[in-house]
Amino acid sequence: MLKFYTQFSVDNCHDLDAILAVAKTWLNGSPHSSFNADNLEPLTLQTPGPLLQGSEKIQIAHCYESDYQGLGVRHENLDNKQVRWVTEIVGAKIGGRFWISVLLSCDSDTPLTHSPQAKKPYIVRLILEHFGGGQDANLTITDEPTRLQDNEADFAAISRIINGESDNMLPVVYCSADEYNRCSVDPDDLAKWLSGMAHVLVEPHRRFSFDLKEATEGKNVYLGAVGIYWPNGGLTRVLPGDRFATGNDLAVEVARTIRDSLVTQRSIKGCSWSQLRERVSRSKIQALKQQDSAELEQFVAAFDDELKAKEEQLAAAELTINSLRSELMNLRAIKGHSGSSLLNEGQEQDLYPGERKDLVQEVMQTALKNAQPNTRMFDLIDDLVQANTPVGERSRLLAAVKHTLSQYQSMDKKTRSDIEKMGFSFEEENRHYKLMFKGDPRYKINLAKTSSDHRSGKNLVSQIRKEFF
């Protein structure tokens, strides 16, 4: 049962042999292992094991060829519930790059009543600390978030990622800014959780998403939503709101989604334990071939025929897996964009949480008032109204506008602060302000610096409601 898998590049200046040293450090410090520095000392490239210690076993494999270098460590541990846990760490230098994969699986000889839970192996963190993250297209693999700047280079880079035009291998988690230019999750914590699994990018400010919408045809998340963008252009949208009580709950869901999806990915050729062992076997066979024995040649030929048949079966299975994976990603993208079986989202973005949902709810309530009771139309509309709870942000904002501006006389410091907290911004002109809502330049109204009569405040509230709500 595969519980965790990831693969990423590291700094190519390091030697492969360091993987064994990092693996020993990992086991020596693990509370779940009886291995320590002393009983791990016999494990070397010359004596690759298996090395036994209680219910644990560890072994290494390595292969050095002209176009390929690989080294792997495989650790097995039988826990007190008789579940066997297997961790495989494989490093491979291929085509001038240094790749590392980490796999965690478990199995049992007896049926399990529930699936065992597993955390991200601590060795992923140790690998990044020792080797340093490599490059993934124009992104660096790290345990820190990338805070985008409002410049052409960063805008072009995130546009390519969202449009599926970038060559990155790891998924990208994009944290959009809410109306107060804040993230719904803590990007620093999230980046540490997802180190070696995904990149975390942070939107510079709310206005950035308006331009991004044009460049990505509305595929970008916005207003505090978190988007997971896969290398093949698929999107899993994870929205904050009623489903998540806290930002931490949202972050946990993002991390779970990433982990569950990564276990389905295909490993880089030569960067898995089985592929490394296959290369070791091929090297041994090649050495035997060079002994020039006719009988041995016949045996090797038969072995090669059998191996080719297995490879053809594997290739066919991988085609099926890739097809299903592509279909799954498409379904995720469709679900992420629509979120409803009744309505497509369209191109407009919410300017505040639940804007469109609350608008549709209000339209349905108006239609319900005009519908005749005990008719099909009435029952359908009533059912939809009951099934969709309004977010309530529209009502809250309107109440705040009325409370702040219904008695408006002049723009003092407190009034301006209260208005800005609602998401309004000002453009100052000679005798009045241009009032804009949530950074959207399409909608503006004039606001006098000093009111002319006692009804100015109420008229202003009415104008704001008509223009912005």
UniProtKB/TrEMBL annotation:
Coiled-coil residue spans: 300-334
Swiss-Prot/TrEMBL keywords: Coiled coil
Name assigned to this protein: Uncharacterized protein
Species whose genome carries this gene: Ferrimonas sediminum
